[in-house]
Amino acid sequence: MIIKTIEFIQSVDDWKKCPDLPHPEYAFIGRSNVGKSSLVNMLANRKSLAKTSSKPGKTQTINHYLVNNSWYLVDLPGYGYATISKTMREMWTRMIEEYMINREALQLVFVLIDVRIEPQENDINFINNLGELGIPYAVIFTKSDKVSKQKLTEHITMFMNKLKESWEELPPYFVTSAVNSTGRENILEYINSINKQFYIDKSV
Ligand code: GDP
I need a surface site. Which of 82, 93, 138, 181 has the fewest CB within 10 A? Predict the structure, then answer.
């Protein structure tokens, strides 16, 4: 897919305020510092489209970008800040869950995982919660340029084995690097194929 246009639409703190145009949408989420802003910028082929990660304590928002006038890329606030208060954490959980459950046009949540490190409990918990909520997702392993091929395979296998403990079917996954644009085409093509199905379903 070629990205011809991408425009920032809005930042909101409640799913009810999300744009009402019925485009299919794809949300990106992960632990803070996982490389989400870098990935969004890499996919969009822009230097600084995504805002740098909001610091703990700041307002956390759902950010919509409209791509090629036909789909939304949604940048969700990250989880896993060590210093965040319980109240903030609860607000985050509520905002994200309500968004994911209620947003009808949401096709898929991309969960970003830092491929350099071993499976983290909060990532696994987040994914298992998606299962309980019935939200379709795919995994994006980030920062692949920072590890050897061997470590890459090892960590992906470890992560998938961890998921196997609670999932019968494993999710699709993508390996990316924001530094050399690894995985860009695969992700955009994957989105493209879901978009096509979305518009076919809408026309019948
Ligand atoms: P966010 O908090 O999830 O939005 O993470 P950022 O996109 O701000 O990235 C966190 C840090 O990781 C920054 O220093 C980035 O430069 C770095 N980073 C992100 N993606 C990559 C990548 O693919 N390769 C490398 N080498 N560094 C990355």
Answer: 82
